[in-house]
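Annotated sample (chain length 117).
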Amino acid sequence: MKKEIKIILLITLFLSLFIGLDVYAATANCNSVFGNNSETTVFLGYVLSAVRWGVPVVIIIMSSIDFAKAVTAGDDKAINTAGKRLIMRLVIGLTIFLLPNILNMVLSLIDSSTCGL
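Output written by the structure step:
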């Protein structure tokens, strides 16, 4: 089952990367997307900040719960599993934390506006 899902995801990724679609967004700018009102941009900035700071808190809480369960069970396999989960969560959390900065850097390299987000 997992292998089938991986194959489907890889095919979808391949098709989305290599099938040429005409996108006409040359006239789009921040005002045409968000309107003249910058409240939307400010709100999106707050949401992004909440996610960037909320994800590490959630990672710490979930990992603490996993390790507490593993230590109380006294099972070495459970402790190893909790350690692997912690590493995976840290990688995902770091990616989520750094994603806006990476996107801003890439978009600034191609001379595109990020609307102040």
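Annotation: Helices lie at 2-18, 30-34, 39-73, 76-109.
Annotation: The chain has a mean pLDDT of 76.
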